[in-house]
TrEMBL record:
It holds the Pfam family ADH_zinc_N_2. This is Bifunctional protein: zinc-containing alcohol dehydrogenase quinone oxidoreductase. Signal peptide: none annotated. It comes from Fructobacillus pseudoficulneus. SUPFAM superfamilies: GroES-like, NAD(P)-binding Rossmann-fold domains.
Amino acid sequence: MSLKKVFKNIVDHFHPKMLAVGVTDNRSLADEDAFTEREIKKPSPKPDEVLVRILATAVNPVDTKMRASYAQTGDFRVFGLDVVGIVEAVGKDVKDYFIGDRVFYAATQHQSGADATYQVIQADLVAPAPKNLDNADAAAMPLTSITAHDILHHGFHLPVERNSGDGRSVLILNGAGGVGSVLIQLAKYLGLTVLATAGNTDSKNWVRNLGADFVLDYHEDLAEQMAAIDYPTVDYIANLQDTNAYWDLMVAVLKPYGAIASIVESTAPVELGDLKSKSASFTWVFMLARGNEQVRLDEQGAILAAVADLLDQGVLQPTVTKIYQGLSAENVRLANQDVAGHHTMGKVVIDYLVDAQVTNKVEQTAANDVAPVTIVDVE
């Protein structure tokens, strides 16, 4: 063995590296070089953190927004928030997790992202992964499940318990997206009557199979459709689409003392005074606030633990509709391109552990079974 190789082995031992996929500038996702692969320093956990070997990640709209707004400094930036993986090391203050534990979580926006083979994460943000889900299905759930939980609990002030919303109704704008796909299921668990919007035949079937009581076509007049099914008004509205575009509708169809929760930032001011005569409320929901602001961290882990239980019990079904096989710059680019197009149902996942072979397989399943899945190879 040459001295050069010996020296490299010594350096690698004391300064281990990992594969990461990221960007150095803000290119179009149509550009095949939008993402690049690099070897970067493998992180070490701080006292309150765990080091996770990542098994699968999911792509969310917020990932594409973060990349699109990336300041072109030339620095290498890694994105990605949803993770399932194996704990490889623990900080000295961590008591609840051990090496070898399989966990899942949503990371924060203020750290190096999950499109890598390893990541450190504060232990309070972590929960044991669902036992009955494979890696791809588990990776799809953290961010959207926490968001759906926050809409119901923080936005609508409902306990996330069976039948806690019995006799009440919710309108979900964009029922087929990642958050909507979980929210429909949780809302039904609470006993709510669910009205969900969708656009094409596939997405309408998707939200119906998830449990929506009524499926509304967002291309048509929603107020007229609601009146036609004897739900001219609802108790709650979850805006997962466009706060400004739907503001007048939401004010009109909300019951007195009702509540609106929105996860989509406004592009112009909205007139909150419109809700005063109904004594109704409006709440922004942003699940990343806990990690970003470093508040109520243990709450996030507790929510995920409850979600894992519901998944293992079969109350919640996984929401994966597309899987890219293997961590690579091309797979990360294509997954982000899918999500940025705003026509994806459910969640898009990158599974690190499967071989990248051409399959393009679609599995159609029963109405209340797991979602149709497309497995994609980009060889």
